[in-house]
Specification:
By secondary structure, the protein is of the alpha/beta class. The chain contains 6 helices and 5 strands. A 5-stranded parallel beta sheet has the order 2-1-3-4-5, with helices on both faces. The chain is globular and about 50 Å long.
Length: 176
């Protein structure tokens, strides 16, 4: 079985990536892990041309077609994102928008995990909004919302020094 790890932070050693790597390490006993660093991809924004709806791939040749093939082959997906302006990173939003080229059956039955790191306290509205967004995406696409880990972390309190958060990331996959 395959899991696609989608790291969406512009910082490859950032807090959300650090947590997601702990999660991926725990997931290696169940899944073959395919890591994608969106910061390293040259993705363009969707042009809403709908060419993909008749050709089942995107007209843009920027790497997203290959990423969609990997997405389709995966039984589980993990999105790791920093929190910007009460939501996910621009890199992750762009990736999600470009998944438009997929058919609904390409989503059905996949497990979706989300890891989100921001500087606000855990009772801040941003974590609730992100959770609700992905719950609705799962309901719409037929994916299973398998796990969510919001963590308060920043430059002054890096997640690499938060053993409780790292433990939560390592055990997130076992709670599904």
């Amino acid at each position: 079985m395959q899991m696609m790890m989608v790291y969406s932070s512009p910082r490859t050693q950032g807090n959300s990536t650090t947590l997601a790597k702990a999660f991926a390490q725990a997931g290696q006993s169940t899944y073959t892990i395919n890591e994608v660093y969106l910061q390293n991809e040259e993705l363009q924004s969707c042009r809403a041309c709908k060419w993909c709806k008749t050709h089942f791939r995107c007209l843009l040749e920027d790497g997203m077609n290959a990423l969609c093939a990997s997405f389709k082959e995966s039984e589980a997906i993990c999105f790791a994102t920093p929190v910007y302006w009460w939501g996910v990173s621009a890199q992750l939003k762009l990736f999600i928008d470009r998944l438009y080229q997929l058919r609904m059956e390409d989503f059905k039955g996949k497990e979706l995990y989300v890891i989100a790191c921001g500087e606000d306290t855990l009772d801040g509205v941003q974590y609730r909004l992100i959770r609700e967004q992905f719950e609705q995406i799962c309901e719409y696409t037929g994916m299973e919302f398998a796990g969510y880990l919001p963590v308060c972390a920043g430059d002054d309190n890096p997640v690499s020094e938060n053993e409780n958060a790292l433990h939560q990331a390592r055990t997130l996959i076992t709670k599904a």
